[in-house]
Amino acid sequence: MSDFFKNPLSTSSPDSAARKQAIMDQVRNELAQANAQQLMNNMNERCFKACVTKPGDSLSSSEQTCLTRCLDRFMDTFNAVSRTYVARLAKERSESDSTPSL
């Protein structure tokens, strides 16, 4: 009965460490999926507002062109910001690793 109330992640066995890592990986994956979904929603909302002035049954060729360009620009911008952010994080990590501890 006492095992029932025990936190499965609090023990230090290799099995519980693997379980903890699996849960952390699952949470990371779910966060990545949520972020990707939010990116898609933002992209669609912004580009639709900018390109589709008179919603109807179909898109005109100019609306299709506008949407294509808008989505391309949005993704290019997102990728540039992401690369810059990752590079900054890597730089900060390397600087903190090379800083001597007092």
UniProtKB/TrEMBL annotation:
Keywords: Chaperone, Disulfide bond, Membrane, Metal-binding, Mitochondrion, Mitochondrion inner membrane, Protein transport, Translocation, Transport, Zinc. Pfam families: zf-Tim10_DDP (PF02953). Its main location: mitochondrion. Residues 1-20 are annotated as: Disordered. Residues 26-85 form the Tim10-like domain. One of its GO terms (molecular function) is metal ion binding. The keyword DNA-binding does not apply. It is a peripheral membrane protein. It comes from the Eukaryota. The keyword Mitochondrion applies. One of its GO terms (biological process) is protein transport. One of its GO terms (cellular component) is mitochondrial inner membrane. It is found in: Mitochondrion inner membrane. SUPFAM superfamilies: Tim10-like. Heterohexamer. Mitochondrial intermembrane chaperone that participates in the import and insertion of some multi-pass transmembrane proteins into the mitochondrial inner membrane. Also required for the transfer of beta-barrel precursors from the TOM complex to the sorting and assembly machinery (SAM complex) of the outer membrane. Acts as a chaperone-like protein that protects the hydrophobic precursors from aggregation and guide them through the mitochondrial intermembrane space. The twin CX3C motif contains 4 conserved Cys residues that form 2 disulfide bonds in the mitochondrial intermembrane space. Belongs to the small Tim family. This is Mitochondrial import inner membrane translocase subunit. It comes from Lentinula raphanica.
